[in-house]
Amino acid sequence: YSGLYVGGLCLLGKAISTFRNVNDPEIKVDLLLPPKSLYFFSHRIRYEFTHEITSLPEQRVWDEKQIPKQRRISIMFRDVYEK
């Protein structure tokens, strides 16, 4: 299993990543991932939230603008779990 930190590198197309609370799915945070963006998360957001990239057009809206579905490459990074 991985450790405390998770990172992602978003290449090519834009995407919106949704972080959703596992105990209350109504609690969510959206993050716009432009091409060439690098992001990391840890602690509460790592263990108490899921993360997803939606394919639903109605959920791909940022600043009242539709984000078209585009080809993208995502590279994920995880640190090593140490006992």
Automatic annotation (TrEMBL):
Q: Which Gene3D superfamilies match?
A: Alpha-ketoglutarate-dependent dioxygenase AlkB-like
A GO cellular component entry from the record: mitochondrial matrix
Q: Which superkingdom?
A: Eukaryota
Against InterPro entries, the record matches this protein to: AlkB-like_sf, ALKBH7-like
Please name the GO terms of the biological process aspect recorded for this protein, alphabetically. DNA damage response; fatty acid metabolic process
What PANTHER family is this protein classified in? ALPHA-KETOGLUTARATE-DEPENDENT DIOXYGENASE ALKB HOMOLOG 7, MITOCHONDRIAL (PTHR21052:SF0), SPERMATOGENESIS ASSOCIATED 11-RELATED (PTHR21052)
What is this protein's record name?
Answer: Alpha-ketoglutarate-dependent dioxygenase AlkB-like domain-containing protein
